[in-house]
Design goal:
The chain is an alpha/beta fold. The chain has a single domain, classed as Rossmann fold (3-Layer(aba) Sandwich). Helices cover 41% and strands 20% of the residues. It has a 5-stranded parallel beta sheet with strand order 2-1-3-4-5, with helices on both faces. Strand 4, helix 4 and strand 5 form a beta-alpha-beta unit. Helix 2 runs parallel beside helix 3. The chain is globular, with a radius of gyration of 13 Å.
Length: 121
Amino acid sequence: MSRIVFCEDDPMIRKLVQAALRSSTHDVRFAENGKLGLALIAEVRPDVVFSDVAMPEMDGFEMADAMRERAELAHIPIVFMTASVQREQVEEAFRHGASAHLAKPFTVSELRARIAQFVKS
């Protein structure tokens, strides 16, 4: 069973993702900000992390940087989810170690496709 961590401060998006993946075989965990996300990632050691960029406590870029500094977490792919599709924002995500980008709002099929890119069903 693959493990996925979603770091997202918007409760509506967390509910959408939870509903979309309810019937999947993935073990999906949620964190409300980057600080809680980093702790959860260290505990769960997921196959992939999906993270919002703008979050309280610690934003997605800071969380990604902290992951990259820890050898045991540095290899975990990160997919940044953001409403911004501006080139500068996407490039910034990749500078912070993004493996991919998922533009908000996204569809269930887009989410599942991005998950399939990194984990086996």
